[in-house]
Amino acid sequence: MFDGYTSSELTAIFAMQGFAGLSLFSVYVLMALGLAIIFGQMGVINMAHGEFMILGAYVTYLVSILFAEYMPALFGIYFFIAMILAFIASGLLGMFVEWAMIRHLYKRPLDTLLATWGLSLILQQIYRSTFGAREVGVSIPDWMMGSIAVTDLVEIPINGLFVMAVTIIIATSVGVMMYRSLWGRQVRAVVQNRTMAGAVGIDTGRTDRLTFGIGCGIAGVAGSAFTMIGSTGPTAGQLYIVDTFLVVVFGGAASLLGTIASAFTISQTQSILEFFISGSMAKVLTLLTVVGILMLRPQGLFSLKLRK
Amino acid sequence: MTKRPESETSTTGPSRRGVLMGATAAAMTASLFTPKTLRAADFPTAEVNTTGLAVTDDAVTIGILHSITGTMSISETGSVQAEKLAIEQINAQGGILGRKIEYIQEDGASDWPTFAEKSRKLLVQDKVASVMGCWTSASRKAVLPVFEQHNGFLYYPTFYEGLEQSPNVIYTGQEATQQIIAGLDWVAREKGAETFYLLGSDYIWPRTSNKIARKHIENFLGKRVLGEEYYPLGHTQFNSVINKIRLRKPDVIYAIVVGGSNVAFYKQLKAAGIDMTEEKPLLLTISVTEDEIRGIGGENIEGAYACMKYFQSLDNENNIEFVKAFKEMWGDDMVIGDVTQAAYLGPWLYKAAVEKAGSFDVDKVREASPGIELDTAPEGYVKVHENHHLWSKTRVGRAQADGQYDVVFETADLVEPDPFPEGYQ
pLDDT (tens digit, 9 = 90+) per residue, A28-70? Predict the structure, then answer.
């Protein structure tokens, strides 16, 4: 397939393809981080993860309208404010859901699957009744669209760079919070042994609520960022949920590093295969690879060493 | 080239002149602008309804069956709105055979078994005289056995892949060859396109359509297809294929991406620095109506070409009236896509068929349907073919930043529907 191309053209294509792989990687990390916290750390199978993302997307949509209407001069920077609000909105909703529903189900993890699936249907219908069944168009500030021409042939999409930057910031802050802060220590203590954690004076209920809230908040930020590359509609969350679980499970549910490694593996496999064969076949082969590896390593790529 | 049904006679399959004469005749007989007010008393219920349908002395009940909830509601809402508008307008003109149309609306909930169940309810329990409904091919395939078993009559609005012809369905949208061939001919002739890259979501409609497109490009136009590929429904990452397209440098990207993927595809295409207004490469789609542009954003698809039979911007009297009435009923911010217009034709075609037959009996309506003409359709003159599809013009529009299409081409004649195209399978 490379006949008749000069070496500079090929280099350019491979450079852009490499970037495409990296940007897919950051998309996967961003969408999986929130779930890695909720599913990985808390063991809650949150089927409504996609809907928390879409809440963030709708918040972005609303903020974009507000800015376009009342503060057109500041439209260029509305996205940052939207992301913060998306985090707060999804996080608050997450904490409410944890309080009203999830906390009653910690001892019945499989039931969380049904309950959160029901929640996802309810949220979808709420979005549909509020914003209409049609997808909404979120207008993105001009400076975030288009591409940077590195050379004549190599063009790097700005929104890809932006998603990457967001991913790095979120992933770093989650890492720092998890392994350097009091909250992180408490979360890890509760995960490892809930009863003992309670016995040494950790408010496990509060920790759970905060953890669930932060996981959902990160989903909201991801949803906000994805308005640049995807659609915003009542059911758009469903587009992400399978890939998200795939990344988290493949990485080894309890390990954040595993999530990142798994996102990297899956995105690179996918992106390289997509380049050489058709999209649907690429997806099939990627899934086959994942299934194969999970058969050899059922615990996922990385796993915590725990005394059972 | 056309495989015709056995019942085809020389009176159908009109030549160009035949169509024009037909148009004139229709203007005289079935014109909707000068409605003849038929009185129900002249058509006693016992005579016009011999099979126990829900027809009374002053009303006829029909069904509306679309998804109001679930994934597909995004697309089907417009169809419901158009059908209700048509019903209201018909009632304002005195109804069908002097009877007001009443409707029972059921929700298919984007779930194909639900469609089948609801259609059975409409036909068996409610005894509706006809049904306006379905959107996806999957939902139509699900209700088809029910309609054939209970001898119901369905008006189906979506452009679709063809390869179907049921005595119990009138297809008011275009089948694949009508929509595809004219567009490909145009792009080869007007834009000098030599090479094509075919792309689609991975299910029956894009695959069948691209098959037809590929055969036409290679066998009839003598041009080259550089690549053909499919992405799962809901796929959101198109950077790899965009790079591949850059590498192959086709003259035309022929895209049949649907749903949420659509938004992702066009946003990423734009972000990757492919400016469609420069037409290098040119993008031609058959899956993006004005409805979809609302989600994609006009600025992200500006310059792309779409090939279908109707655009909201069509400049003719019927359409101006239609757009105005639609917005009055449903709000100023509404947009009208191809399928919405096709759905609007359903009740009108039903009225014309019933009045031609002088009866609500499904068998008589079916017999009367071929040859029915509408010269008041927003898309212009249409006529029902023996094979239950519509003769219609095909048009190419160019997407504008404001989310509307600028019509740049339309076929001189009506294009014959050909659901089983020979040489394309």
Answer: 999 999 998 888 778 888 999 999 999 999 999 999 999 999 9
Contacts of B25 (CB under 8 A, 6+ apart): B373
DSSP code per residue over A202-265: --HHHHHHHHHHHHHHHHHHHHHHHTTTS-BSTTTTHHHHHHHHHHHHHH-TT-HHHHHHHHHH
What single-letter DSSP state applies at residue B175? B
Which B residues in the span 40-69 are in contact with A, Cβ-Cβ below 8 Å? Answer: 69
How is residue A212 written in tokens?
């669930």
Q: Are B30 and B349 in contact (CB under 8 A)?
A: no
Asked if the bond preceding B281 is cis, omega within 30° of 0, the reply is yes
Same fold, B16-174+313-392 and B177-308: yes
If we measure between CA atoms, which residue out of B329, B343, B309, B367 comes closest to residue B176? Answer: B309
Domain boundaries, chain B: 16-174+313-392, 177-308
User: Which residues, other chains included, contact B340 with Cβ-Cβ below 8 Å and sequence gap of 6+?
Assistant: B78, B79, B81, B82, B157, B289, B291, B326
- Residues of chain A found within 8 Å of residue B260, distances taken between Cβ atoms: 135, 230-231, 233, 235-236, 239
Name the residue among A132, A136, A159 with its Cβ closest to that of B271: A159
pLDDT in tens, A229-279: 888 888 888 888 888 998 998 888 777 888 999 999 999 888 888 888 888
Nearest chain B residue to A282 by CA: give it. B231
Architecture field, domain B177-308: 3-Layer(aba) Sandwich (3.40)
Q: Which residues of B touch A146 (CB under 8 A)?
A: 270-271, 273
Partner B, chain A 46-85, Cβ-Cβ below 8 Å: none
Q: Which CATH architecture has domain B16-174+313-392?
A: 3-Layer(aba) Sandwich (3.40)
Nearest to B122 by CA among B138, B135, B110, B134: B134
Tell me if ipTM is over 0.85: no
Other Cβ atoms less than 10 A from the Cβ of B41: the count is 8
CB distance from A99 to chain B under 8 Å?
Answer: no
Token pair of B67, please?
């998804």
Chain A nearest-CA residue for B237: A24
| The pair of three-digit structure tokens given for residue A37, joined into one six-digit string | 């916290």
pTM: 0.83
Q: How far is CA B375 from CA A21, A108, A168, B92, B355, in A?
A: 53, 64, 60, 19, 16
Q: Is A101 on the interface with B (CB under 8 A)?
A: no
What residues in A contact B263, CB-CB < 8 Å? 135, 230-232
Q: Are residues A109 and A175 in contact, defined by beta-carbon separation less than 8 angstroms?
A: no
Please list every residue in chain A whose beta carbon sits closer than 8 Å to the beta carbon of residue B271.
Answer: 145-147, 157-160, 228-229
